[in-house]
Design a protein that fits this description.
Number of domains: 2
Strand order of the largest sheet: 1-2-5-4-3-6
Structural class: mainly beta
Number of helices: 5
CATH architecture of the largest domain: Beta Barrel
Radius of gyration: 19 Å
CATH topology of the largest domain: Elongation Factor Tu (Ef-tu), domain 3
CATH superfamily of the largest domain: RimM
Distance between the termini: 46 Å
Number of strands: 12
Length: about 180
């Protein structure tokens, strides 16, 4: 089986017919939470594949019905479960758009060749994503923006950045938390 990627977490049951409300962990909720998609429900060390039987969105969050989940009690038991999708089920992205899991682990250098660290996370929505770069006992937030990230090559696990003057000092989480 291919790598599983987190797409959401069950917040709570909804209604009395086995539906659940999902907290989204993907930039593509409409594609990931579509009727007919097969997802993996992970909870308490167990995994089970379920098909999304129906979906509707309310206040930006999907409310889904899963195959085999028929009652409110069954839905309540899913609270906190992680919902994952096989990486092989993901569609290719347009140019200059990246899956978060493809960026995590990339080495980040500046245009002078100095290593800043490795991407440990990607935060924010698709149009305002920030790379969380950890290295030299500090954590930096670098906007994933054209002009700042001048070269992104997930295949070679490298990103080259050209941050504006002061950006790295401003977005150094270690430094800003020490000054609080």
């Amino acid at each position: 089986m291919s790598e599983l990627l987190l797409i959401g977490k069950v917040a709570r049951a909804h209604g009395n017919k086995g539906q659940v409300i999902v907290n989204i962990e993907t930039d593509f909720p409409g594609e990931r939470f579509a009727a007919g998609n097969v997802i993996v429900v992970e909870q308490a060390g167990t995994s089970i594949e379920r098909t999304i039987a129906s979906v509707r969105f309310q206040d930006g969050r999907p409310i889904i019905a899963l195959s085999g989940i028929e009652t409110m009690d069954q839905a309540e038991a899913l609270a906190g479960a992680e919902l994952k999708m096989s990486a092989s089920a993901l569609a290719p992205l347009p140019a200059n758009t990246y899956y978060r899991h493809d960026l995590v682990g990339c080495e980040v250098k500046d245009t002078a060749g100095r290593v800043l660290g490795r991407v440990t996370d990607v935060e924010g929505p698709l149009d305002q994503s920030r790379l969380v770069v950890t290295g030299n006992r500090r954590e930096l937030l670098i906007p994933l923006a054209e002009g700042i990230c001048v070269s992104v090559d997930p295949a070679s696990r490298s990103i080259v950045v050209d941050p504006p003057d002061g950006l790295l000092d401003l977005n150094d989480r270690q430094r800003t938390s020490d000054s609080d």
